[in-house]
Amino acid sequence: MQPSILRRGLAVSAVSALAVTGLTMAPAHAVGPDVAFISIYNPTHRVSTRLDADTSHSITLVAAADNSDSPTVSFEYNTDPAAGPATAGWTGIGVSPTYANGIARAEWSPSNLNGRSISVRLVAETVDGISYAIRNNVAVSGDSSAVNAVHLDSLTGGYFVQPYADSSRTKTLKPVSGTTSATGGSVELSWWRASDDTFQGQTDAAVSPLDLKSSGFPSTESVAGGEFNGALDISAYGADPGDLLLVGARRDTDDVSPPVTLYAQTLTAASATMDSPTSTGTPVEIRATDQSMNPIAGAEVRRQSDGSLVGYTDGEGIAIAKQPNSSSETYYVNATDNNAYEGGTDQATSMVTTGAFTPTASDTEVRLADGDVFDDDEYAAGDVALQVVDQNGDPFTGVDQVSYTLYPTGTTPPAPTTASTDANGRLVVPFAPSGPDGEYTLEFTGPASTAFPAEHSQTFVAGQAALSLSPGSGVAASGGEITFKGSLAVDGSPLPGRAVAITYKRGVELVPGSGADAGMTGVGGALSATVTTGAKGTFTVTVDDPAEAGNPTETGGKLSAATANNVASGESTVTGNAQESTSSTAEFGSGKGGVKVTLKGASKAGGPDKLAVVTPKSVQGEQVTVLRKVGKGKWTAVVTKRLGAAGLKLALKDPNGAKVVLYKATIVTSDRVKSTTSKILKLK
What we know:
- Helix content is about 0%, strand content about 45%.
- With about 675 residues, the protein is mainly β.
- This is Big-1 domain-containing protein.
């Protein structure tokens, strides 16, 4: 149980916030109000002014200051991301926060700070002093950033204690909904615990695509975004009616709700809404509501005909049944742990009678064979098309008319073109890959045969792709490995699901190594393989150099990547080849290879001088030159030959009888070995 938002007796985070002010603190009470920063709780302290709700480009600032001290509160920012209370440059945000139940809250639109890292603080002032709660290293981003924003809808205080012990469902759940600039994935929901300033009860809420208004009424312009709803688990909160609760939502950035006063929900009504029939049945939404007509999350829904389970209501109080076409059914929301319907206790819907499914032309969808990002060289006539679909989203056959406009985004749109589909309900949209690289906008209507054809807009990116490998020159120790990251993108947008052919050409391994042996690992082959770019248009390749005695250097390796032909298969319709290539070099170890050369020999009067050049086996096949001294400081080459596994043996004509002859042997410089000379050998 938690009877107030911020208790007297400071949380650890609040003590830290007060400590940096330099204010004195008594054991049981701090001079000035207790404070804690609540919002911007995501680990990297990111905020975004991207559109995350109708007409909203703001971020939410939320902090707590003990209301027993009746403080005056305000928010300020500093362009120093590590600013402390005494750092110069603190500036008011220009928005007066609301303050109630110990919570200060402000909606702030710092678009002029996009791309910067700043500090934000709450200032809470009483007659006893001033306290600060500071959030450092706050990274601000906007519409052009990939950082997603998130926004919570207005919350009601209702919570539902599940009574379904037989199915192990006894949580305390609260419905939560909102919007985000993301179009998929999930948003993490949680509730704030004042005792340690943390968010608890993490629950993932799935994101469904939703067009978000980009400006206020009456504008109909919109941007792609998403909505979410979830059943937040607040069991550990120990909820009692009258308690105050703060809810948080996180998706890259975060949002925190105003405090809501909790009340226990009583199942009061159930209703059913039938959707249009589909080829596989008719979706029926069963909604559970409480005494205030607010949605109940986690309520059990069953079919009255046989008592079978439909499911449990979501954050909007809805469970969806798939009812057979041309059938009748009544549903009930179970109020107890007894599965069978109990009149007067459980809440039943009215009877739902479904109709037969008859396909009709309902809307138009874009068909982009190569996805919403493609290379000009991948494009083939027909890759951009419109398809009339039925109410089930399946292709609808038959000739119909649609209107469309295709133009580079940001330019003046041409007049719409109205054309007829083919007998399969398909219309090819002409596209010129020779046009400018970048984003294109395709505006189109639903089929003319519908009463009120819908208007749609979709963008795609086309142009010359860029294929890259990083690092461009990979270096590792002998016996190590180098991981290369590849990227394929058009105008900065990734190309996923593309085949890329990878080859590795070995270089030269220096002595004491015997031969180049580095190769690729983890891609199905030592010297060649085909990889597929991931969702972000990337792939990785690791080149490994086997460890060897002496740690020889291996240099001159070349990793090459080239886009390959894509063939449509399964769910992928990508075809063609972007015709892009790149390469990087690989080097393991450093320095030229060198070996010790020993020259031995013997001579007899009247006989030849017998010489032996002794070298390690690793230089087999390299050349050695034997030299003889012919004068003061002068040497002449006698013979140059290739070394065998054990070196080289020679018999040379004695040039001067009983006089002393000086010899030396020198390894000839090559790609594998540097020149090395033996000690001088004296023979008579």
